[in-house]
Design goal:
Length: 355
């Protein structure tokens, strides 16, 4: 069946050896995506690259600064670029293709990572019937990060034959009978090339955003609910319902609306849309079916501008969510039953910090 694959499909692909891994754990399978894991094979490289006419390994040979063994934890330094072979490799069939994205915790730490595969001229793209290794390029932008083999920084969503996105007319109809957005905003144009998401900069609570501090003390990716928030983040209070996004500074904000992904759909946030501003609003783009069920959950926004400082105002559109049909309804959904970290979230940093 056409559409985005679900939990049971990934189980079958593993059995059929279309997904292969020497060190696989079933907890990597999410309702409509698959977490990918770092192997021990890692290299610091001179600069980023794609490999459209040959294998990644062939191009990699000329870029290596040093080889790193991730069997032992290693500190990935700010603004240094690394490439790591992932434990998973693919041998896809039947016109199956896909796309990768950073996981939520990765994006919220400002770890810029993108997937590279053989004979592909695009980052994050898994071509139809791809057969080969998968590599992950990593550049940490705000913090030094301790990583090691087995850590999961990105995820894969596979699709059979073609994407089936809901257009704006279908989204409006869906929202009338099966609510996907919870908001006091009565504007007619909330559905425009997808669901428009605006930023919350007016709140009764004191903190409406966090900005990353300069801190040389590394974050241990393995340690959950461990790092002291104020060592790494500057809380920002509501002030005149606006915030100045400074160049090359990383911010965590949240949406004004609560959103919901029904169990028969998946969601993807468009990370960079020049039509609504020259900034990146989201690193991690996948929303599994069941996110925000039943009454909606805020979307956390990871914001950075590289060119010019940018003034954001309360209620300003900051991102869009596209809704995509699953190839069938998923019986496994995002939420407490599968120990999802960000269900019913508010303004939420990554799971590594203690509030």
């Amino acid at each position: 069946m056409i559409g985005s694959l679900i939990y049971d499909d990934y189980i079958n692909l593993l059995k059929q050896k279309q997904i292969l891994s020497s060190n696989f754990d079933n907890s990597q399978i999410q309702p409509s995506s698959l977490d990918l894991s770092l192997s021990s094979e890692c290299y610091e490289i001179e600069y980023s690259f794609l490999s459209p006419i040959n294998r990644v390994r062939e191009k990699l040979k000329k870029q290596i600064i040093r080889k790193i063994d991730l069997n032992n934890q290693y500190t990935f330094k700010i603004n240094k670029t690394y490439i790591i072979r992932l434990n998973e490799r693919l041998n896809l069939k039947n016109n199956t293709f896909g796309r990768c994205n950073p996981k939520s915790s990765t994006g919220r730490l400002d770890i810029f990572c993108r997937t590279i595969v053989d004979y592909s001229d695009e980052y994050e793209k898994i071509p139809k019937n791809y057969n080969g290794e998968i590599f992950l390029e990593i550049t940490s932008r705000s913090f030094n990060i301790k990583l090691q083999a087995g850590n999961k920084l990105n995820q894969l969503r596979l699709v059979n034959n073609s994407h089936e996105y809901l257009n704006d007319i279908k989204l409006k109809k869906l929202n009338l009978k099966n609510k996907i957005i919870f908001t006091k905003n009565k504007k007619d144009n909330i559905f425009e090339n997808g669901l428009k998401v605006s930023v919350n900069l007016s709140s009764k609570s004191k903190v409406i955003a966090y900005s990353a501090k300069k801190n040389k003390k590394p974050i241990d990716f393995n340690k959950i609910n461990h790092h002291r928030l104020l060592d790494y983040w500057e809380p920002i209070s509501a002030k005149k319902n606006s915030i100045l996004i400074e160049r090359n500074k990383f911010y965590i904000l949240r949406s004004k609306e609560k959103v919901r992904i029904p169990t028969f759909l998946a969601g993807e946030m468009v990370p960079y849309d020049t039509g609504i501003g020259d900034f990146r609003a989201h690193y991690a783009g996948f929303f599994d079916p069941g996110f925000g069920d039943p009454n909606g959950s805020y979307a956390v926004l990871e914001v950075k501008t590289y060119e010019l400082p940018f003034l954001l105002e309360d209620g300003q559109t900051i991102a869009r969510i596209k809704y995509e049909k699953l190839n069938k309804k998923s019986n496994v959904v995002y939420g407490l039953k599968i120990k999802s970290n960000y269900q019913n979230q508010r303004l939420k940093l990554s799971k590594h910090f203690v509030y």
